[in-house]
Write the structure tokens for this entry.
Amino acid sequence: QVQLAESGGGLVRPGGSLTLSCAASGNVSIINTLGWSRQAPGMQREFVARVDDGEKAVVAFPLKDRFTISGDNAGNTVHLQMNKLKAEDTAVYYCFARRPSGEPFWGQGTQVTVSS
């Protein structure tokens, strides 16, 4: 089993920045990807960004000019830096951990609200 601890959510004004962090613990040797998805009210969960093998960063194309993701070399922690936030970025952000086979692990989610 893998446990995911998320932190960094909150309320931010439009145009502001926020950093989300996710730390994996437990049997981390089985995972090869850590990342983030988000789900806005009434919408499907969507991919935001991920780090593969502790170093290869991938960000969803529509977010690439505002969001960046980084991870530690061990691949156990990722940080999602979100800049120039918009109201439409308001969502619950979920950390996920993938393994070569089997279902991914999910964190409990952290709320990000962008509002003036």
